[in-house]
Amino acid sequence: MKRRMMSGLLCGLICAAALIQSAGADILVVSNLSETLRANTPIANPQYWAAQSFFAGTFTGQVTSIDVIAGNAVDAPAAVAELRKANIDGEIDTSAAGLLGTFSAPDLSGVEGIRIFLPDNLMTLLPATKYWFILGASNDGTFDWSYAETPYFTGLGSLGNYADSSDGGASWDHRDDAFPYFIRVNARTAPIPEPSVYLVIILGLTVGSLRRPTRT
Predict the structure, then answer these.
(1) What CA–CA distances, in Å, run from 190 to 20, 31, 63, 187, 194?
(2) Residues near 16 by Cβ (< 8 Å), separated by ≥ 6?
(3) Strand pairing of 142-148 and 79-85?
């Protein structure tokens, strides 16, 4: 009976240890929200869509939100927000494979300010990879996306150039990195088992292997 209890306890300990993981870390990929405002760009369909690129840092993580400075909505715009990867030339990959995901748009009415776009699906950022965050509108409504006076930023990643489209994102004119759009990219690294978890599992397996079968 005691042997069965010990065996059950041992199995429970191993299973519990396997499930214990260190919490993923919140990561500031890149942000320029503290920089000085230069001006606002009106986003409309299809006259003007805009995109800001950024590079992930040396980590792998899941996007938790992308925040921008936007507002001044007119005629209830149906905002389009996408994350796309860059093609081999560093430009926006407009193919179906280039779309990593979409975001739910916040209320864009009122004076421009920080607006938080939450992902509709899981989006994984890979190390040293270039991405494009795109904002547009799918109806006749408009809103403003503000851009900065300076190219400075903080975070583990970096900002790149921006782009604009006059045909609803079908094609893009890629610009330089001066006067980037305001953007803050937030991510979270995947949970990783603690070293102590591995130790408990190894010890449990070792003890289990040393037990000899006995008669009952």
Answers:
(1) 13, 21, 11, 10, 13
(2) none
(3) unpaired
Beta strands 124-125 and 26-31 are: unpaired
Asked if residue 46 has a cis previous peptide bond (ω within 30° of 0), the answer is yes
Q: Say whether 158 sits in a helix, a strand or coil.
A: strand
CATH 2.60.120 domain range(s) in the chain: 26-189
> From its phi and psi, is residue 169 left (phi > 0), alpha (psi between -120 and 50) or beta?
left
Assessment of whether the complete model's pTM goes beyond 0.85: no
Q: What is the pLDDT of residues 138-190, one digit of tens each?
A: 999 999 999 999 999 999 999 999 999 999 999 999 999 999 999 999 999 97
Under DSSP, is residue 148 helix (H, G, I), strand (E, B) or coil? strand
Spatial separation of the C-alpha atoms in residues 147 and 105, rounded to whole Å: 18
Q: Which fold has domain 26-189?
A: Jelly Rolls (2.60.120)
